[in-house]
């Protein structure tokens, strides 16, 4: 047949269905969603589903605006932040110059660039996996995409450094993907007051323990929002279903619960990192709910297989890139991570 699209898709982490496994391969939250989310689900009146969901998600935008200290018209809600990011690529990256993003970052950026036929350049991280600020300054580009803290490195870039990049590229949109910002690091939110060219994305999947709900959002200037909304309404106007909006609202209203569980995850992360370092592993300094580590005394591929034989699922990217020596391990509960430390200890 003629005209069929060929594309190499994003490869997500496995979702094994076995019981009694430790699943720390896709950066899902270690804890259950807020009790308010569970109550909102049982209170939901299914009769309402006869209607279409909200086009503008005003209730959820108002609640987020209040928490974030921005205005409602600086927010857009989507079907996961992947939806918002894809919309942003379509909306903002229409120049002939290549967009820039790191060679080691969220794997989906390259896939969207190819899908939407956007020229792109992958910019190498430094040898210690840092984003080099000067690489994004004084360089012709059609836009910039950074994850901060970066994934899968976990490394955070300071607000000052992010501002240098945003300030030096005011003719282009700079997307800052803050999927992990509630586990550590400084948000770029304060830059919204000074710059119109910054667009921040967030998700309920990681810090709100709602990966299966599929809700994410973007924050930016009204100027950018107008473009995004026009593209959204040319494509899939009712992208957030009614149940999802209601439950995401309940999560947004329970700041205290999430502050508590995410603080625990950060503590477990730091404990787990130190345990691995004590075994001689190289562990990158993480501000997220996962760590990237290079094992000592065993290859990443062998440790991955060994852990899987013990029903512990971590992420191995394989291939021939710099990541082939590393494993990405999401942070589960303290009990789960203690078990992982014990199992890894048995290798030696
Ligand atoms: C998980 C993740 C996303 C996607 O989040 P969803 O809201 O589940 O679509 C986007 N960016 C990064 C860096 C992520 O890790």
Automatic annotation (TrEMBL):
Q: Which GO terms describe its molecular function?
A: histidinol-phosphate transaminase activity; pyridoxal phosphate binding
Cofactor dependency: pyridoxal 5'-phosphate
Q: Which reaction does it catalyse?
A: L-histidinol phosphate + 2-oxoglutarate = 3-(imidazol-4-yl)-2-oxopropyl phosphate + L-glutamate
Q: Which GO terms describe its biological process?
A: L-histidine biosynthetic process
Q: Where is the Aminotransferase class I/classII large domain?
A: 20-344
Q: What is its EC number?
A: 2.6.1.9
Give UniProt keywords alphabetically. Amino-acid biosynthesis, Aminotransferase, Histidine biosynthesis, Pyridoxal phosphate, Transferase
Pathway, per record: Amino-acid biosynthesis; L-histidine biosynthesis; L-histidine from 5-phospho-alpha-D-ribose 1-diphosphate: step 7/9
The highest taxon in the source lineage is Bacteria
Any Pfam family: Aminotran_1_2
Q: Which residues carry this modification: N6-(pyridoxal phosphate)lysine?
A: 206
Which protein family is named in the record? Belongs to the class-II pyridoxal-phosphate-dependent aminotransferase family. Histidinol-phosphate aminotransferase subfamily.
How this chain assembles, per its entry, is:
Homodimer.
What name has this protein been given in UniProt? Histidinol-phosphate aminotransferase
Q: Gene name on record?
A: hisC
């Amino acid at each position: 047949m003629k005209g069929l699209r060929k594309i190499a898709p994003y490869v997500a982490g496995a979702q094994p269905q076995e019981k009694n496994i430790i699943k720390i391969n896709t950066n899902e939250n270690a804890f259950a969603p807020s009790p308010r989310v569970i109550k909102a689900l049982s209170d939901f009146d299914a009769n309402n589903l006869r209607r279409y969901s909200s086009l503008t998600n005003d209730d959820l935008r108002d609640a987020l605006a209040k928490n974030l200290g921005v205005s409602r018209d600086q927010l857009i809600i989507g079907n996961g932040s992947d939806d918002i990011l894809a919309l942003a690529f379509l909306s903002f990256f229409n120049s002939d110059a290549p967009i820039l993003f790191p060679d080691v970052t969220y794997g989906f950026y390259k896939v969207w660039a190819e899908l939407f036929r956007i020229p792109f350049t992958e910019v190498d991280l430094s040898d210690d996996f840092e984003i080099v600020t000067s690489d994004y300054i004084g360089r012709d580009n059609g836009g910039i995409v950074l994850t901060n803290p970066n994934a899968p490195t976990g490394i955070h870039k300071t607000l000052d450094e992010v501002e240098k990049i945003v300030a030096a590229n005011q003719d282009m949109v700079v997307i800052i993907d803050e999927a992990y910002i509630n586990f550590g690091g400084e948000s770029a939110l304060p830059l919204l007051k000074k710059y119109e060219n910054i667009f921040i994305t967030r998700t309920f999947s990681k810090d709100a323990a709602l990966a299966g709900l599929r809700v994410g959002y973007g924050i930016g200037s009204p100027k950018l929002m107008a473009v995004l909304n026009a593209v959204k309404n040319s494509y899939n106007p009712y992208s957030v279903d009614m149940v999802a909006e209601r439950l995401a609202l309940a999560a947004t209203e329970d700041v205290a619960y999430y502050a508590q569980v995410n603080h625990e995850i950060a503590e477990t992360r730091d404990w787990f990192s130190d345990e691995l370092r004590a075994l001689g592993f190289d562990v990158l300094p993480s501000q997220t709910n996962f760590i990237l580590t290079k094992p000592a005394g065993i290859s990443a591929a062998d440790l991955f297989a060994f852990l899987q034989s013990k029903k512990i699922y971590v992420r191995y990217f394989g291939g021939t890139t710099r990541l082939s020596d590393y494993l990405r391990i999401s942070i589960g509960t303290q009990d789960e991570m203690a078990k992982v430390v014990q199992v890894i200890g048995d290798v030696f």
